[in-house]
Each structure stands twice: as C-alpha cells, then as structure tokens.
Amino acid sequence: MAYPIxxxxxxxxxKASDALPSGEGWLYEPKWDGFRTVxxxxxxxxxxxxxxxxxxxxxxxxxxxxxxxxxxxxxxVDGEIVIAGKEGLDFEALLLRIHxxxxxVKQLASESPASMVLFDLLALGDRxxxxxxxxxxxxxxxxxxxxxxxxxxxxxxxxxxxxxxAADWFSRFEGAGLDGIVAKRLEGTYQPGVRAMVKVxxxxxxxxxxxxxxxxxxxxxxxxxxxxxxxxxxxxKLNHVGICASFTSARRRELVKELEPLRVNAMEDHPWxxxxxxxxxxxxxxxMPGATSRWNRGKDLSWEPLRVERVxxxxxxxxxxxxxxxxxxxxxxxxxxxxxxxTYAQLDETPAYELSRIFRGGAPGHGP
Length: 368
Hints:
The protein is α+β, with helices and mostly antiparallel strands. Helices cover 17% and strands 31% of the residues.
C-alpha cells in the first residue's frame, strides 16, 4: 500500500510577529528549536522528511522502533526532531547527525538519542486531514497518542488556549533552548508551504567587543563579510560568542575603510592570537572562528584580527551555552562603551526550564 499522503509534503510555516495574538480561537505552543520533520507511516514502512523535502531516516536510526510503536498503522504527522541535553535543547548535537558515515551516526544515536515532538496530524488511516480544522486534528493527535508511559521519545507538544499561560511559557521555556511561541488558529486548515501560523521569538540586545572580521566571499579587500564578536567571562577571558553579518553591500564596503586603523599591529597583544597556530595546522577548536570542521570544509574561514577597541550593540534571540544560537543583527556602534564592559553579566537569560517535565509526560500549563 501507499502512504496516506504521498511524500513529499511541504510543512506549513509561520510568519513572525512582535506579540502573541489575542482573542478567541488561538492555540499556543512552545516553538521547538530542532529539525522540522514530517513523518509518513504505512505499516512497517516509515519515511522521515525534512523541511527541505529531503529524507532524514539514515540520520536518525533510533526512531524506527519508537515511531512504529507509537504511531497509528497508517498516518502522517508533523513535528520537530530535538535532542534534549543537560542544559536544554542541543541543536549542535543535531547538526552532528548530518554525517556521511553510518557508523558515526549510529554511535551518536546511541550516545545522544533524539526525541520527536509532534504537533499536527495530517492523515489518519486513509483520511487526509489537511482540510479539517486544526482543533479536530489536534484532538485526534492527542487521542491516538494518549497511551504514553512517560518514557517514550515520541510525544505531543504542550499547548494552551490561555494567552497568559503562553506568555509565561515564553519567558520560562527560553533557558531550555525553546526559542518562542507558535500560535495557530483552531479553525485553520493545514496549508503546506504557507505562513499560516504566527511565531513570536525572543529578541534581546547585547554590547559586544569587536575583535576581528572575515572578508566577504568576493575576496580579501572587497567587503567585510562578518564581524567577530566577543564577551568577557568572570576570569577576564574574551570568548568568541558569534558573528554579525547583517549589512548591506554598501555598508560592507564602508566597513573596510572604517576598520582599517584597527588592523594596525592588531595581533601583537590580541586575546585570540593563539588561533593563528590552529589555522596553521595545529589542533582545531570548533569554538574558534578560524577553525575548520566538516561543516565548513571548503569555505574560507580565515579571519583578520582587530585591536579590541570597538563595541557594537547587536540584537540576538538566545544563547546556547555561552554562544549566540544564531547570527546577530547589528544595531549601532557604542562609542560610549569600553570593550571590558562587554561581559556575560549584561545578558538577561532566564534559568533553564525543566525539560524533564515535558519529556517524562508532565506537560505544564493548561491543556487545549
């Protein structure tokens, strides 16, 4: 037999908003930071599809047993593959799975098994549910996955109709790596590829020391590609925390001249001067901006040091460990700030949410 809906199916998407929508008819869910996945099942056959419509089965071999045990015999579900670590969701561990060697993938699956959080049911049996209201799809999803002993790695996302509860989640879930809230209309149909949902993500600002830059892909001397950002820890060490690359082409060209004075004698007392040794063939460190890995092999990641004298204010969504999870957005230079004032202490990060309450069956808040 064929799958209830033939793959691939484009996932329904969300448009960004600055605030949670209000009024009746909304269901709010945590926004999971993982790999968006549509799972198709027909008896013993299972197909995992990424947001880019590519197969994912080989990268997550640990899912076949749990999904076949939990899902109905014939169905299509929409969800997110995540890995829950000690400090919250670990997106870097997910990236490690996209590896060409099956033996390495198998090892990682054993060491850090993934979970799948489900939030929509697109088909059940021979019935295509995409035209059904989301309230019906959600109720069916809960019903078919109700038999949960709290130990499965296939679970239904928490959800609430209470906007106040969702606002509370928006703050408390952040420390665990969940990066916002998704709001869905209860009467809404499933619209593949359409931004029919609403997402509200965390956004904060930070003052960062600018310690270097990378040239644009057009080549050295053309344009600045990205600024390398640093924050000081309690021991006085300047840590590389991420990059800022949100510039127009015109601004990238201007930055070449603007940063030129800071390149003079920049390496002499630079806090990151040892990275030159790694770039020249020493032991690489994936946290260093000049290091190589299988993810960036073939790209020019050489960097130009700058005297650590400039501070810029950037917008960011959240931290993962001690680094910005995504690239930041440049807001302005802070000529009134000293780089030494750029510390982790300025960051308003909430304590990690207890993910075990979700992954062991104790979903918080109000039900739908």
